[in-house]
Amino acid sequence: MDALISIHMAELLGRSVLFDETILTMSSSHLVKGGFVCAIMAHIWVSEPGGSAFESRAKQFDNRLTLIAALLASVFAEALALVLANGLEFRLRPLLVPELEMPVPERLSEYAANMAASSSFPSDHAVLFSAITTGIFLVSRRLGLFVAAYCLVFIAFPRVYLGLHYVSDILVGAIIGMVCTVVGVKILRRVPLMRVPVRLSYSHPAVIAPLSFLFLFQVATMLEDARDFLQIVKSVQPTEEMRL
Q1: Distance (Å, rounded) from C-alpha 81 to C-alpha 85?
Q2: Interior CA angle at 50 toward 47 and 56, to 5°?
Q3: Among 1, 2, 103, 120, which residue's Cβ finds the most Cβ atoms within 10 Å?
């Protein structure tokens, strides 16, 4: 089934340069992907639910607690996805499989060497954004379904269309993200320490707001900066002289 879908995408790819370039731009845009999803989370964070002042404050506090737990769970899910990608059997991305004969856009072919070194299974995009979407759904079903549809069209489809992932990469990644968030939120909400940042968001908003922005920025950019710093740590291997 995976191969058949990828072959069908290969038949469509290349028919319209404008469409292909649009999909490629969306696929590489942090604004379209993480930026939009994190904006929805920011909207929920500042929204004041209806009801009396006490009920509204209590509901908002609960929503913020869930969002923080979901964000932490999504980071864990992303880390788990990287571990699985490195630990499971390597899977070449569809656009690099000669038998599929996918006409790779020129801008995308420039990154072929890097993509050949990373396994397509599971999709870390699907893991991260599925985890975040699940967190949004736990707060608001209406917004959760809307974000799920958005991620399907603007995040999942482009990655299958361009041959960056098989459908199963996306599906398994989405399941991992959902499970991590559901379990993670259930556990983290019971941790008393988790309530501290929520309380500080009311008593010290000038401190929490910029910290929240930085955290959401990292999530919106797929934790790229954090990954780069980790690569630096991995690349620094102590020499024999340093050991002595």
Answers
A1: 6
A2: 75
A3: 120
Dihedral sign (CA 68, 66, 142, 125): positive
Tokens of 87: 């630990």
| Contact (CB, 8 A) for 75 and 219 | yes
Q: 24 with 107: CB under 8 angstroms?
A: yes
ω into 210 cis (within 30 of 0):
no
CB-based contacts of 184: which residues, under 8 Å, 6+ apart? Answer: 69, 70, 72, 73, 76, 77
The whole model's pTM is what?
Answer: 0.87
Find out whether 180 and 126 touch, Cβ atoms under 8 Å: no
- Express each pLDDT in 89-144 by its tens digit: 888 888 888 787 777 777 777 776 677 788 889 999 999 999 999 999 999 999 99
**CB neighbours (10 Å) of residue 95?**
24
- For 145-153, the CB contacts below 8 A with 24+ separation are 147/37, 147/40, 150/36, 150/37, 151/37
Give the number of other Cβ atoms within 10 Å of residue 175's Cβ: 14
Domain ranges of the chain: 2-243
